[in-house]
Amino acid sequence: MKSAGAAYDIIVVGGGHAGIEAAAAAARLNCRVLLVTHKLDTIGELSCNPAIGGVGKGQLVKEIDALGGLMGEVADAACIQYRRLNTTRGAAVQSTRMQVDMDRYRQQAQDRLRALANLDFLEAEVESLLSDQDAVQGVVVTTGERLRARAVILTPGTFFNGLIHIGNRRLPGGRLDDADSTRLPKQLASWGFQFGRFKTGTTPRLDGRTIDFSKLTEQPGDREYLPFSPRSAEKPALWQTSCYLGHTNPATHDIIRKNLRQSALYSGQITGTGVRYCPSVEDKIVKFPDRDHHHVFVEPEGLEIDRYYPNGLSNSLPLDVQNELVHSIPGLEQARIVQSGYGIEHDYLLPTQLRANLESARIRGLYFAGQINGTTGYEEAAAQGLLAGINAACQVNGAEAVVLDRSQAYIGVLLDDLVTKGTNEPYRMFPSRVEYRLIIREDNADERLTPLGRRLGLINEADYRRFQRKEAAIAQELKRLESTRVSANARVEALLRERGSAGIAGSATLLELLRRPEIHYADLSQLEPGSGPIPRAVRERVEVQVKYAGYIKRQAVEIERFQHLERIRVPKDFTYQSLPGISLEVAEKLTALQPRTLGQAGRISGVTPAALSQLMFYIKRTQAG
Amino acid sequence: MDMRSDSIAAISTPQGRSGIGIIRISGANVLDIIGKFVSSQYSLQKLVTAKKRKLIHARVINQDKEIIDEILLAYLPKKKSFTGEITVELNCHGGRAIMAETLKMAIRSGARLAEPGEFTRRAFENGRLDLVQVEAVNELIQARTKNAIKAAWRQMEGGLTRRCTDLREQLVTVLSEIQARTDFDHDHLAETNQYTKESPDFSPELPHPLSLLGRGIKGEGDPNTPHFSAGMIYSWDHPLRNSLDIIKKMLETAEKSKYLTHGCWVVLSGPPNAGKSSIFNSILNIERAIVSETPGTTRDHISEQIDLDGMEVRLTDTAGMRVAQDEIESISIGKSRQQRLSADIVVYIFDQSIEMSDYEQNEAETVLKQEGFVVFNKSDLEMHKTVKKFSQRNKSNKVFYVSALNKTGIEQFLDQMSEEINEKSLYSENTITLNMRQTQALEKAKKAITEAREILGTSRNLDLAMFELQEGIKALQEIIGEVSTDEILNNIFSKFCIGK
Of the N and C termini of chain B, which has fewer Cβ atoms inside 10 Å? Predict the structure, then answer.
């Protein structure tokens, strides 16, 4: 059957956070894009908790935004609580987290997609891929319609062979009330793609009218607001709300223990590997038997929704036990569950089958992004979606692939980890995974990536000008601090004493003073009232740059060393089998993964530094010979 | 390039005429190589499966089918060889031409001439040795005294490696605890100053819908919300301090035991004509000289290495120290002074029969204060009264009276010095020695841990503390060779000779 409608450059399958970014990026890079999803209404749905960002994830959102992605702006528009996390643990590990209004988030995401001229939508289920074995050629949907395209991006999330567990009830599905997808994974498996099985879960949702907030501790947001995106308004668009903190207690724990056998997780019904970092409440009780309470954060799902997400109560127990469990928590005695919590198992693609640009090594033009690659979290999905969209568009446009390395971005670390090391548990982003985190920070995401976004064409002229103005303001402020001297006088000495700081002999520049750990930016205006108000984004970058200058320099040296190895290309089809010092097992791994660079080879598990230096030796000899 | 053929060969014994000389060949295809130029009644292929390893008799044949040598061939399987690869050692007759011809045949048959240290490098790359052991191999070869041999063996047996891995484990534990702190913001629980009762400063686009239901959005919060306790930070201090103490002690003992690896430098100083040279020569007559260096001019110094009870000692005779008479002398006296400053032990020698000036008494006392020795020569002559006074003032077991002429007192002096050196080098069965590279890396680790403690103690910049701890861990791994740059490796292996 001939394809109805025009052929597309790129087809994106799935309308989750990966699919949104992939479709938007590709469409904005002048590709004709079709987004196929089985329910157009749920594009941009927050299937789990109503929040964007968090430790390690905030950095991803900032980077997505700096490259011209959507997530930051959408979150800003839907923000109902802003928080900066890790503020007392050092400037380099701080992250933004927002509670968002779920309806508003979905609506904003959909509005932004609809505004893109090159993007078409189709409500259908993709049943199979069209391919000549070597290269993808399009998709076939359940109506039998064949849609041709030069590249396909698969973002099926948890839908591949999704299986929902509530107690001992099992429902096939990708999300509660959404059908699963079975035919496509079968076809991919028949082509030799390897899959693993992960599980994740979500909490029951509660009716706001039935919660006694007086028994919970209110947690308001920060006083000072800073949006993810410089393109967003400086102030929040919506009313700001609070979260509420409650606690489980021994009675809660008894209920769980008594019913553990009914939990899909502990009855042996679920076999997939769970998210270690976001454990179900059953997990917490079993793994930390000594603790007599755990936090439960009651998070609002939106302003008009009046439904709450009790973060910390994710479980796969039967509904009646869930009720009992919720009611044992002070403040939730009367709470009514409006949607059951559940566990979900799903297939994920072993991501080491992908290249650094997220294209499958097996079939040209076929990209995978999001939870299908073994990650967890909206932000991790969106970051992959953006890069898959950019790379599919580059392929279609005949441009070179865009690969961020580990010294450039959290996104670079995320993708490199996935395609180089793979993952045996749902992968979540953390600052500790990022070697060069003193340089790769939230506050300088734009400095690192916006020029690239501009070159690609995802950042428009006006936004780029704004970025340049900000960089200029930072440079100017640094100059001012360097050239402004304060002389020792009674007022200055008093302030320094108050901060526990040593006095100054004669005079000192503001820069010298700010370098002292105990002196903060706010103190400077007292020392030298000359300057006008400085925007927070400028102030924060300047402060980190000044205070961390020595460390930043040291890390820059490390990055140089890292990039040296990253620049040494491993010849294609290099034979590893006969290298002395490399076991057969590691050689097979290297052959399968085909690392692009010596640096990447070194990160493959089992490759020792000795083996690496051996490899370098042979590459150099091969090149010399 | 076919890397399977990359087998290396070298002559492993010193060049020249000798009873036997050994050619070593290592690599995956060694058997194919020797098959081309070694013939034996014993099947070479059988060596691979033979249960017992043995030396077999064989002949080396050149390309013209002429016999070059009759040899004994040792076959070492992968798991039993030094390099961790199949290795064959050809025990040839030790003639220069025989060895050269045989090596040439090995190269012609597909082996490559080994670079210096390449056998050991392969042992390292195949995980047979860690970096500390690699260096110990070299120290063993270079050892000139029995104590240096003992020290090298202790490194081989893994004393330093074990300590470094233990330390690394301690740091990794602390690091991962700090990481857990920064990776999980207490489930995004607010910590300290983030709370505010005031409304955020903004003008909403929409009215708050729930406010229409008459329910307060901003309830009364509990200001006493649990926050990040400072106690956590202090609990990290204990293991860090502990690691630091261990490293400091290692550096201290290594500093003292440096004589084991580098030898001890003893400088003889004192005014001209005190008999320094006579004493110098007497010592050489008593102790065995190790290496003979080219002597310098009369104004210059002379050095000799001696083996003093298993300890390597470099003995230097300096120019006489006095107020310079001419420019040349002043230069050479300046040099003597410098040598005195950098010496491990200074021996001040004086003629006891002549007057000891204030300047000289002062010099001698300074030497004693710096734990050196004062030796009065010419004890066969009468003691001058200034010397007598000096002796009464400075009663010390480091003052000796000897006669270079009659050869008396010198042995007692040497015994005392030997004891002193042994004591200073803390020579004991578990002394760990460090070479320069290891010391530098350990110093780096010490600095990093000190910085990390400082950061944790004065600020909450956990990100910086993590950076320092990672630096410390890296430094420790560098010692063992768990992380190594090409530069370090090249540097180490270049110190080896070819054939090792």
Answer: N
Domains of chain B as residue ranges with CATH: 3-114 (3.30.1360.120), 259-424 (3.40.50.300)
Residue type, A53: G
Residue A35, SS3 per DSSP: strand
Query: Is residue A123 scored above 80 in pLDDT?
Result: yes
Chain B contact set for A83 (CB, 8 A): 188, 190, 194
Do the beta carbons of residue A60 and residue A383 sit within 8 Å?
A: yes
The reply to whether residue B183 touches residue A430, judged by beta carbons under 8 angstroms, is yes
Whether the Cβ atoms of residue A606 and residue A583 lie closer than 8 Å to each other = yes
Q: B187, B460, B483: best mutation site toward chain A, by most A Cβ within 10 Å?
A: B187
> Is B159 in the A-facing interface, judged by CB distances under 8 Å?
no
Q: How far is CA B364 from CA B268, B270, B420, in A?
A: 12, 8, 18
Q: Residue A165 is inside which H or E element, if any?
A: strand A163-166
What stretches in chain B show pLDDT beneath 50?
1-5, 187-232, 291-299
Type of residue at B95:
G
Task: Find where tokens 């501790």 sit.
Answer: A217
User: Is the ipTM value over 0.95, yes or no?
Assistant: no
Determine the residue among B461, B462, B468 to mutate to test chain A binding: the one whose Cβ has the most chain A Cβ atoms within 10 Å: B461
Residue that is written with structure tokens 């793979």 in the block: A422
For residue A59, the Cα-to-chain-centroid distance in whole angstroms is 8
Question: Which pTM was predicted?
Answer: 0.81
**Based on C-alpha coordinates, what's the Rg of chain B?**
34
Residue A123 DSSP one-character state = E
Q: How many domains does chain A have?
A: 3
Closest alpha carbon within chain B to A550: B464
Mean predicted confidence (pLDDT) in A477-503 = 89
- In angstroms, the CA A511 to CA B484 distance is 38
- For residue B130, list chain A residues with Cβ-Cβ distance below 8 A: none
Burial class (CB in 10 A: 0-12, 13-18, 19+), A22: buried
Q: What CATH number does residue A606 fall under? A: 1.10.150.570
- Interchain contact B131–A (C-beta under 8 A): no
Q: What share of chain A is helix, strand, coil (3-state, %, to 5)?
A: 40, 20, 40
Which B residues 200-219 touch A at CB under 8 Å? Answer: 200-211, 217-219
pLDDT digits (tens, 9 = 90+) for A171-186: 888 887 788 888 999 9
**A112 vs A23, A71, A119, A379, B335, CA distance in Å?**
11, 11, 11, 18, 81
Three-class secondary structure of residue B302 per DSSP: strand
Mean pLDDT calculated for residue range A447-460 = 97
| A394 contacts: CB under 8 Å, gap ≥ 6 | A29, A357, A400, A401, A402
Please check whether residue A97 is in contact with residue B186, taking contact to mean a CB–CB distance below 8 angstroms. no
3-class secondary-structure state, position B55: strand
CB pairs < 8 Å spanning A and B: 188
- Whether residues A236 and A303 fall in one domain: yes
Residues A428, A423: Cα–Cα separation, whole Å = 10
Rounded to whole angstroms, how far apart are CA atoms B159 and A88? 41
Intra-chain end-to-end CA distance of chain B, in Å: 25
Give the length of chain B. 500
Can you give the CATH number for the domain in which A223 is found? Answer: 2.40.30.260
**CA-wise closest residue to B154 among B139, B173, B174, B176:** B139
Q: What is the pLDDT of residues B335-366, one digit of tens each?
A: 767 777 778 889 999 999 999 999 999 989 98
Nearest alpha carbon to residue B474 among A562, A85, A531, A277: A562
**Which residue is listed with tokens 């196929």?**
A36
User: B224 touching A, CB under 8 A?
Assistant: no
